Amino acid sequence: TFNSAKRIDNTSGVTGVWFDNRKDRNKWVAEIKCDDIKHFLGSFNDIQEAINARKEAEQKYFGEYTRLTK
User: Fold this and answer.
1) CA nearest 30: which of 20, 40, 38?
2) What DSSP state is assigned to residue 66?
3) 17, 19, 69 from 43: Cα distances, Å
4) What percent of the chain is helix, strand and coil (3-state, nearest 5)?
């Protein structure tokens, strides 16, 4: 969905940012979905890096319609 709110099970507090604890990954993942295409933005050791990647992608894909994330 375009510019949707965070999921109820979100633990990062930011839409499109989640912690991948499967196997030995243990990384923060950033993703964004635009025009029904999910874009993988990367996996990060630090949550703030994942949040920054997500915010940059929001500006790129949504422009003036970006939902302001905290």
Assistant:
1) 40
2) -
3) 10, 9, 19
4) 25, 30, 45
Q: What is the pTM of this model?
A: 0.77
Residues 17/54, Cβ–Cβ less than 8 Å = yes
Q: Which helix (H) or strand (E) holds 20?
A: strand 17-20
Residue that the structure tokens 């991948």 belong to: 20
Q: Which residues on neighbouring strands pair with residue 28, listed in sequence order?
A: 19, 44
Distance between start and end Cα atoms, the chain: 19
Give the separation between CA 70 and CA 66, rounded to whole angstroms. 12
For residue 54, which phi and psi values (nearest 5 degrees)? -65, -45
Over residues 12-68, the pLDDT tens digits come to 888 899 999 888 889 999 999 988 899 999 999 999 999 999 999 999 988 877 665
